[in-house]
Write a structure and sequence with these properties.
The protein is mainly alpha-helical. Helix content is 63%, strand content 4%. The protein has a two-stranded parallel ribbon. The protein is globular and about 45 Å long.
Amino acid sequence: MIVRFLITVLVYCFLGWLLCDIKPGEEYTWYSGIWHGLFFVVNLVRSWFTDALYKAEIYTTAYNVFYWIFSILSVLGFLFGGAGSSRRDY
């Protein structure tokens, strides 16, 4: 159970690195806010162990709005999204 969880976290971190690596000097707009918000949990875990950013340093107001909306949805999905997937009622 623990090994499976760790492997899942590592795979998600690898996907976050491939698909959603935030560059420090680049300005990001609204669609990047959606993408970075969806990968919030993954980028947060990556930031604990590496120098990866979990939020852009230079961004627009729309980025900030969409980032927070999708970050909250991402955290809720991470906490509650997988709870019913192992129980199937046929």
